[in-house]
User: Fold this.
Amino acid sequence: MKLIIAIDGPAAAGKSTVAKRVAKQLNITYIDTGAMYRAFTLYVINQGINPENQAESEACIPDVHIELKPTGEIFLNDQDVSNEIREPHVSSQVSYIASYKAIRLALVELQRKMAEKHSVVMDGRDIGTFVLPQANVKIYQIASVETRAVRRYEENLEKGIQTSLESVEEELRKRDYIDSHREFAPLKPAPDSVLIDTSFMKVDEVVHRILEIVEKKRIVGV
Ligand code: CDP
Assistant:
């Protein structure tokens, strides 16, 4: 049976860590949709275009080719940009790019194609509400903004990305605001999603909870 698991939620709520682990446990593909919006943003910045300029950003659509490798790397026009897309200059601009309908539709088309044939765990903002509303399991993963800021700050330190805790928290708040207030496919829980607040949970516990939900769904035969 084909299985589709959608994990949505605000920035740095730990979705990708959990989604990767769930995918590994179930031996299915993990798709990081945020990485696709980040790669598009990097392209726009590299062209010298201001990501706040919608018309110029959307005009890039035909020139942007994004590929997610089965091993997890992300390629932009045949270049590995897996590390660069995590840099602060991309993080601070990505929500503008993600608010443009034409860009979303182009990336959503790719995302739907990737889930057409295989079982997937896909994480993002609009997976359960818009990209794959037919998902068998929908999770809405949250954590307090303070917890999320500490997690992202520590992640950045590990990757050698220089940021302050204050600037990380400010960026998360700004991104959450833009992501949840945009007109087209905003960040919000799907009515049939299960809310998991991970503020006081370990990664293992979250993974376990999701696997339990998947198991229950399988028993009732979705
Ligand atoms: O990992 P982090 O929580 O920082 O964010 P991400 O998943 O890499 O997503 C980066 C940005 O892409 C988000 O802040 C959204 O603006 C946008 N995004 C989106 O609009 N829709 C998605 N399905 C995934 C990401």
